[in-house]
Amino acid sequence: MSQATVARRIAALESSLKTTLFAKRPDGYVLSEAGEAFFPPAEAAEAQLLWLERGATGPSEQLTGIVRLAIPELLGQHLIIPGLAGFQQRYPQVQLEVIADVRPLRLSQREADVLVRLVRPTQGDYLVRRIGSIALGLYGSRAYVEAHGVPRTAADLEKHRLIGWDPVLAFLPLARWLSDIAPEPNFVFRAHTMGAQLVAAEASLGLAVLPAFIANRLGLVRVLESEPPFISDIWLLQQSESHALTRVRSLADHVAETITDAAPQLMNIAGPEAPVSSG
Predict the structure, then answer these.
(1) Which domains does the chain have, with CATH numbers?
(2) What are the residue ranges in the chain where pLDDT is below 50?
(3) What burial class does residue 13 get, using C-beta atoms within 10 Å of its C-beta: 0-12 exposed, 13-18 middle, 19+ buried?
(4) Hey, is 25 helix, strand or coil?
(5) Given this model, what pLDDT does residue 194 score?
(6) Entry pTM
(7) Could you report the per-residue pLDDT of 26-83, keeping only the tens digit for each?
(8) Which of 91, 135, 227, 278 is within CB 3.0–4.6 Å of 212 for a Cys-Cys bond?
(9) Among 255, 250, 254, 239, which residue's Cα sits nearest to residue 51?
(10) Could you tell me which residues are beta bridge partners of residue 100?
(11) Residue 138: its pLDDT value, please?
């Protein structure tokens, strides 16, 4: 949408409400005090409309309609999504919308019906259950460790190239874990997705914190073996209101079963042996 169109629509909205919702600044628009007050009910109204579009007002026992599932990117792509084949065969009338992202979504605003996260929420009206754990470690390609050596201790990381998260995502536990190990990291590559970090590690750009079961499957080499792996619990969240819908409960149970059945591989930190050289 063009700037001119946005400006016209803002002007029309302000005119209809007879109030100023935005303050115009050289660098763009910011919400006014009235706009700040107007924002929560507007967001709630939008969420309710999206909820209605997904057929949430139909009979709760129906196994038809849309269910939105939010999942961590790599865990979703390599485990949860492949595991959805059985769900689809059992419930062919349920339409799945999948969001793969690390950024927090608000179930209270109905952005997702079921959400899998590696961090337990501290607030919100959720039904929460722990469904497993996953081990992560620092990995590099065999070509990288053969060329640059294998860091055995945290001090060795000073001589190595690291792959990390975009600074705006520094709050993530994975990002903090790496920062604790390497207080002065030499980041040569940063990304806002773990998928991009995985590709960078496979391309020998540096070392990245990755789920062990994926890194092992791809033949990446675990380094820094003197450090214990990062263990994260896996949490399943449901929006309290959507729990009444059979299709939502069925999907949540299916995802939980998929994670539980995969527990041995999710916690298997062992992978290809690193070359003998260190550095």
Answers:
(1) 3-43 (no CATH), 65-132+233-256 (3.40.190.10), 134-231 (3.40.190.290)
(2) 57, 60, 107-108
(3) middle
(4) strand
(5) 93
(6) 0.74
(7) 878 888 888 888 877 776 676 566 656 555 545 545 567 888 899 999 999 999 999 9
(8) 135
(9) 239
(10) 71
(11) 96
Beta bridge partners of 208: 139
Coil, strand, or helix at residue 32? coil
- H helices of the chain, in order, are 3-17, 33-53, 73-75, 81-90, 142-148, 173-181, 194-202, 212-217, 246-261, 263-266
How confident is the model at residue 109, as a pLDDT? Answer: 52
Largest distance between two CA atoms of the chain: 73
Q: Which amino acid is at 164?
A: G
Do the Cβ atoms of 248 and 67 come closer than 8 Å? Answer: yes
Beta bridge partners of 31: 22
CA of 5: how far to CAs of 8, 12, 21, 105, in Å? 5, 11, 16, 28
Structure tokens at 201: 């590690």
Mean pLDDT of the chain: 86
Distance (Å, rounded) from C-alpha 92 to C-alpha 86? 10
Quote the tokens at residue 105: 């979504």
Output the pLDDT for position 48: 63
Handedness of CA 135, 138, 141, 146 (dihedral sign): negative
Residue 132 near residue 260 (C-beta atoms within 8 A): yes
